Amino acid sequence: MNPDNAYIRQHLTAANRLFYEEQGYLVAEELLPAEAITSLKKEAAAIFKGGRGQVEGLLPVAENMPDAEVLKQYVAIHFPHKLSPLIRDFLFKEAIVDILTQIISSNLKCMQSMLFVKGPGKKGQSWHQDEFYIPTRDKSLTGVWIAIDDATIDNGCLWLIPGSHRPGYIRPRVPTDNPEFNEKDSLDISGFPKEAIIPVEVKSGSVIFFNGYTLHSSLSNKTSDHFRTALVNHYMSAESMLPWDQDGKHEPTDDLRDIVLIAGTDPYAWKGITNVNKPYLRPELKAK
Ligand SMILES: O=C(O)CCC(=O)C(=O)O
To answer: Does the C-beta of 155 come closer than 6 Å to ligand 1?
Structure first.
């Protein structure tokens, strides 16, 4: 496969689509305009300052505390679209939805957003497949990773293993003491050759699309002064039910209806919509 086809220049091409099917990811470079990204960055500061509503764990903000000082205290918040109309609008960005409706389905729903701040020294996320956490019935889960800051190897960009979604099963997790990761377990990637594992460095405004079975991770932010802010939204086909109990947080369900319909029609609209997932701060593993 030509890795060049990993890059969406303006519109998705047949070669891009084929690349996505075979490699499980795509990169749309600088897809979103700088002004949109600037507004997102300001919104991130407002959220973590408590300006969009109180979230358990948010710390008091001293008067005139610079945004960077506030943000350095956090790794990520889950479900920010439930606090912020601006972030909710990002779920519907035309340039993103246009691509998703071509790689997933014309009927599209979103069930999760996550806003990563990841300041200097913050750890990364161990190897995983998103479908382990958010199971769909038709393997349509897709991550949309929007770079708010430039993402580099130094500040902890995404790493992934192209083509690793193809076997289409969830791999076992093993314990890890890798200090790069915030978790104590990880998918075992020792069977993959080094060259199979790639960093996805992208400029601010770029968007990475990846399949829910694609193995991915991120390492720690090794800079002393750069954030690696990113908004990550998860989508799936509206045709699939969503048996997602949030790792046991909720009662088992065959179809979690805490979703946002993004495009097309919802065959399950008759079930109504719920609001059970509340915004929460991602817990951080403290250094020993
Ligand atoms: O951005 C990161 O550091 C990790 C993101 C990720 O693993 C995910 O969105 O599933």
So the answer is: no
- Write out pLDDT tens, residues 8-24: 998 999 999 999 999 99
Average pLDDT, the chain: 96
Q: Which of 247, 21, 273, 211 is nearest to 134 (CA)?
A: 247
CB of 230 within 6 A of ligand 1: the answer is yes
Give the model's pLDDT for residue 283.
Answer: 85
CATH no. of 3-53+67-281: 2.60.120.620
| b/e code 113-138 from CB counts within 10 Å (16+ = b) | bbbbbbbbebbbbbbbbbbeebbbee
Q: How far is the CA of 142 from the centre of ligand 1 (A)?
A: 12
Ligand 1 in contact with 124 (CB < 6 A)? yes
Distance CA 83, CA 46 (A): 11
Indicate if ligand 1 lies below 6 Å from the C-beta of 116. Answer: yes
Judged by DSSP in three states, 59 sits in coil
Structural domain spans, the chain: 3-53+67-281
